[in-house]
Amino acid sequence: MKFRTVFFTMVLIALIFLNCKRATSPENPNMPPTTTITNVPVEGDTIFPLVQITWDGGDQDGYIVGCEYRFTTYHLFKGDSFSTDWQFTSDEVLEIIFESSDSLNKQVLQVRAVDNDGGVDPTPARRTFYTRRTIVPQTTILAPQNAQTYFFLDQTTDWWPGIHLVFTAYDQDGEVEAYAYSVDGNDWIWTSDTSIFLVKQDFDPPYEGTHEIRVTARDNTNLMDPQGAVVQIDLVKPTFEKDILIIDQTDENQFPSSARTTDAVVDSFYSEIFGLHESWDFLQKGMPPKTTLGQYKMIIWHADNKPTTRPHEFVQHTEELADYLNVGGDLIVSGWRILKSFAWEENFPKTFEEGTFVHDYLHINKVDETPAIPSDMFAVNGINGMDDMYVDSLKLKSFPYLYKLNQINVISELGGFTKTIFLYGGANMDFVGRPCGLHYYGTSFDVIVLGFPLYFMKKEQARIVGAQILERMGY
């Protein structure tokens, strides 16, 4: 019994010893993956530099985790070349922008699959093709205008959201994908918008003075407009330290023969109506600069001669006036055919659409005009706290006026937040009782529009009305 036990013990020890000495078989080596390019570009083709490549990979002893790719560009006319480093991606579709700065560029693309053990295809898939030179996009700033002056405020309001920056770009051989703007040489800010507002804090101090705005664009081949577009603008902060500036655009040489007078007489008339205030002769000095406008709380603009061959120049300065109103200035305008001047070549009645100065700032939707013959208007009837005024017939004795006014603008449809303050007085039943003067009450500014020339009203009555107008405007 003891012998048998000892025998089996010795056999067991021998088996353990032999098993420990047996050599193990080596592991199988990692098989490298394989790679194929499965779609365009076709070998030797000439294509656009933005290329989508679909690739596929296989691995016999594992699985594919991604691929590495690189390309070499040969500038065939310049004679030089460069290569990119290998780049890894797990994407199955590669979107590659091939450098194409020469007239014709040879592109050699290599793609190699990567497996789960980190192995790469030792014989990458290869494709050779050509790309033509791409054209950089061209950028344009539509607003603000270069070398112009704009008002600014410390904070935005309902009417002043900031300096409106509007831009666009064109790419001859592709698509614009992004825009960037820079203010006063600061960092580029990229955006997909083409219309933004710049507020005070976007500019470098001192805020009053000259500032530079640049805009550039990038296309779908990653090319950026190297020059971009640039404007320089001046910023002015309104002080409103003075009350009223009277802008005299009335051309006395264009008065009816029976009303011929001098500039001094018309200036005196408006001084008597609205009090002694500073006057600006538009015919001699043009539009006041923003540095002047911003000093006054209110502008009274009169253009009381009747235009016959061209409209009043008032309509050429609506951008400046809108800028003034946006920051809180008030406006009174009196003029003969003043509203007709906004649509000089069009038939009346005329509807003014949203986005026009007449609609958005004068708050008038639709305007009509009385006939040239026969002259009809002999008075305006005041309502909502305003007195009546009669035409000064002695100024209108000559033909075709015959003591009355003609071609007066009546307001067929008022905009919101307005009150009628004068009604048309005449014999023509198509126009009698229709508004020819209004007051717009706004959150940032007030406007009074007189669709008739105030100078041709009787002075004594106009003086009373002038005081009423100033009172309702808060002056």
Overview of the structural elements:
By secondary structure, the protein is mainly beta. It has 3 domains: 34-132, Immunoglobulins (Immunoglobulin-like, Sandwich), CATH 2.60.40.10; 138-236, Immunoglobulins (Immunoglobulin-like); 242-472, 3-Layer(aba) Sandwich (Rossmann fold), CATH 3.40.50. The chain is built from 7 helices and 29 strands. The protein has helices at 2-21, 263-274, 282-285, 290-293, 318-326, 357-360, 459-472, and strands spanning 34-37, 46-47, 50-58, 64-75, 81-83, 87-89, 93-97, 104-115, 125-132, 138-143, 149-151, 163-170, 176-183, 189-191, 195-198, 209-219, 229-236, 242-248, 278-281, 296-303, 330-335, 350-351, 364-369, 379-382, 389-390, 409-414, 418-425, 435-441, 446-450. The strands form 6 sheets. The chain has a 9-stranded mixed beta sheet. Strands 2, 4, 5, 6, 8 and 9 form a 6-stranded mixed beta sheet that branches. Strands 11-17-16-13-14 form a 5-stranded mixed beta sheet, covered by helices on one side. Strand 24 (379-382) and strand 25 (389-390) form a beta hairpin. Helix 2 (263-274) crosses helix 7 (459-472). The radius of gyration is 40 Å and the shape is elongated.
